[in-house]
Specification:
alpha/beta, Rossmann fold, two-stranded parallel ribbon
């Protein structure tokens, strides 16, 4: 069973849409800049109902955010809300919390980092670029491949796991990569803001070979090219 209809839900649909043993909760607030208490309350209500419905299932999977480790945003309403939802999920006897960074994929959501950059570069619209900021980017297909190794392992329960690329990227490099893929120069003003933070990916390292996931040199370019390059 999958709850949700967005990027994450779509990636897992071929595997768990009709499962009666796995409940994969991929719904909720999609804008990390949200400060609307009503939006947060709606997710809490929906998540609570899902947890009650799935009490007897083998796995209840919830997607959190790696931003809980980011000193710049971990105090924001969105991140605090996500942490509160994780506490609800942890009451399930067989929960699995998967924390994600910036996920690349096909989505109409304008609030994702890569969609924001693509839109502004493609339209020659100016934006501010934080010189010191770093972000972790991962392909949604790689998220699904790694997550399946955990979901399908009955021993991987009552865990919180980061699924992320072992390397984070300077925002200036992400923008430069998007420029090459789109074939246009970005118009931006550099501001002295931003920091980087390291995401602990130790738990997923043993799963990568079986999942068929390869990070390393060229990963960022491959992922951005996969979703934002124009078809010939």
């Amino acid at each position: 069973m999958i709850i949700g209809s967005g990027l994450i839900a779509h990636a897992f649909r071929p595997f768990y849409a009709h499962s009666d043993r796995v409940c994969l909760y991929a719904a909720g607030v999609s804008n990390s800049g949200c400060t609307d208490d009503q939006e947060f309350a709606r997710e809490r209500e929906r998540l609570t109902a899902a947890l009650q419905q799935a009490q007897q299932m083998d796995a209840f999977v919830y997607f959190g955010t790696c931003s809980v480790a980011d000193p710049e945003v971990r105090g924001t309403p969105y991140v605090q809300h996500k942490l509160a939802m994780e506490q609800l999920v942890a009451a399930h006897p067989r929960y699995l919390i998967l924390r994600l960074p910036q996920v690349a994929g096909i989505t109409p959501n304008p609030h994702t980092l890569l969609n924001f950059l693509y839109a502004h570069i493609a339209r020659s619209e100016a934006f501010q670029l934080w010189r010191n900021a770093r972000r972790d980017i991962i392909d949604v297909d790689d998220v699904a491949a790694i997550a399946r190794q955990l979901i399908d392992d009955p021993a991987a329960r009552c865990l919180t796991v980061n699924i992320a690329c072992p390397e984070n990227y300077a925002m200036t490099d992400i923008v430069a990569t998007m420029e090459r893929v789109v074939g246009k120069r970005a118009i931006y003003k550099l501001v002295e803001r931003g920091t980087g933070y390291q995401i602990d990916t130790h738990d997923i390292q043993p799963l990568l070979d079986k999942a068929g996931v390869q990070f390393g040199t060229g990963y960022l370019e491959r992922v951005i090219g996969k979703y934002y390059a124009k078809a010939d």
